[in-house]
Amino acid sequence: MSTNKPDKPFFEDPHAALREIAQNPAAYAHYLADFHRVLLDMAVNLEILQRETRLHCRTTRVEGDKWGQAMLRSLPVERSLTAILKDLKSITSGLEKSAHKRHAHEEKVKKVANERQERAKLKASKSNPSIQAAQENPRREDVQGQNAGYDGPASIYDLGRRESA
Fold it and tell me: How far apart are CA 37 and CA 134, in angstroms?
């Protein structure tokens, strides 16, 4: 598409890249990791800004201030920066959780697909069982050799060389 037509966007679908990222868990985690890095850098800068603002606001005194009035004036500014940092930390932890949950979702989808295939195979094998030859029961040769017509000795005295129970 040419770029000299101002009435149409440069890309046909501006959300196509994000759609592809959403479909791939590794790309999703990588994309969120980029945001995470940026937010951590911002947090470091905001912490430094918070410290410097606190020092400046608490040491700015007006003539006639009583003890502690400068600190009380600086509290709203300090609270706002503290709230921003708290929100930023919750956002970064939310990004981490989201990447883990996306990966877990992909694993769960694969697991469900495999389980359904196994259940389908089991169901198919139950409805169409294959005919298997019955396994022969092996006979004991030592009993056949001693008494061909009988199962075993009738009393303890007929045991011969075998030990008694």
Answer: 66
